[in-house]
Design brief:
The protein is an alpha/beta fold and 209 residues long. The mean pLDDT is 96. It is built from 9 helices and 5 strands; from the N terminus they run βαβααααββαααβα. The chain binds dephospho coenzyme A (COD) and adenosine-5'-triphosphate.
Length: 209
């Protein structure tokens, strides 16, 4: 049973994930996997060099993430080409990690990724959690965390589907516009209801009744 966890960039997915992890849930983190699949020696890095040129590497042969980010967040075509290189490999590793968790006897895992709705992956999952905050909060947190200018932060936000579209397909929403304590309390409640529902009915998805 895979439960998706998504939301816009800097909406608080990792913050929510860490709390689920502290409650014992295995969280599969797409950003972490995305870094692993482009390590030196991996075929995805060779494909990136072929597409973007050798200047996309640092002197030590690692991927220059700042340079690649500056290019792809300004250009939807380049973003699609990067996605075509990385997404199938990320999906493969996600499937491997979830299979390992199920083999350990864990009834459910969380898959934390920004693009679950954009790429339709949510349809394959049992249910979907969306982490939400206001556009102002999102912009402020993104600029503060990554040291981005307003324009660069907006370009990253605009490269993703608007939050409203993600909320339309959400089974559960976590409001992360307030204090960390407020968010943690919601995660505690959600954990309890998902875990109980899965053990009783085999699915976390809320019913209409
Ligand atoms: C472009 C890259 C090199 C920029 O690296 P950087 O270290 O600056 O950012 P990081 O990887 O930490 O990503 C931060 C956030 O950016 C957003 N983001 C990343 N890639 C994309 C994308 N292709 N489209 C929209 N948003 C994206 C996500 O919200 C992500 O959580 C990197 O994000 C990347 O390799 N992206 C392609 C893989 C991907 O799609 N990852 C998203 C999760 S599947
Ligand atoms: N409730 C909160 N109050 C204050 N700061 C917060 C709160 N939630 C998250 N933050 C901060 O906002 C920033 C973005 O949060 P986080 O990294 O969890 O977002 P994310 O959705 O995982 O981002 P990305 O899409 O880039 O992976 C971080 O610096 C985090 O510490």
């Amino acid at each position: 049973m895979i439960i998706g966890l998504t939301g816009g960039i800097a909406s608080g997915k990792s913050t929510v994930s860490r709390h689920f992890e502290s409650l014992g849930v295995t969280v599969i983190d797409a950003d972490r996997i995305a870094r692993k699949v482009v390590e030196p020696g991996q075929p995805a890095l060779e494909d990136i060099v072929e597409t973007f040129g050798p200047d996309i590497l640092n002197e030590d042969g690692t991927l220059n993430r700042t340079a690649l980010g500056a290019r792809v967040f300004q250009d939807p075509d380049l973003r699609a080409r990067l996605g075509a290189i990385t997404h199938p490999r990320i999906a493969q590793e996600m499937a491997r990690q979830s299979a390992a968790a199920f083999e350990r006897g864990e009834p459910w895992v969380i898959y934390d990724a920004a693009l679950i709705v954009e790429n339709g992956l949510f349809k394959a999952f049992d249910s979907l959690i969306v982490v939400a905050c206001s556009p102002e909060t999102q912009l402020q947190r993104l600029m503060a965390r990554d040291g981005l200018s307003v324009d660069d932060a907006r370009a990253r936000i605009d490269s993703q589907m608007p939050l409203g579209e993600k909320l339309k397909v959400a089974d559960f929403v976590i409001d992360n516009d307030q204090s960390l304590d407020h968010t943690r309390r919601q995660v505690d409640e959600l954990f309890n209801s998902i875990d109980a529902r899965i053990r009783q009915t085999g699915s976390a998805r809320p019913t209409d009744d």
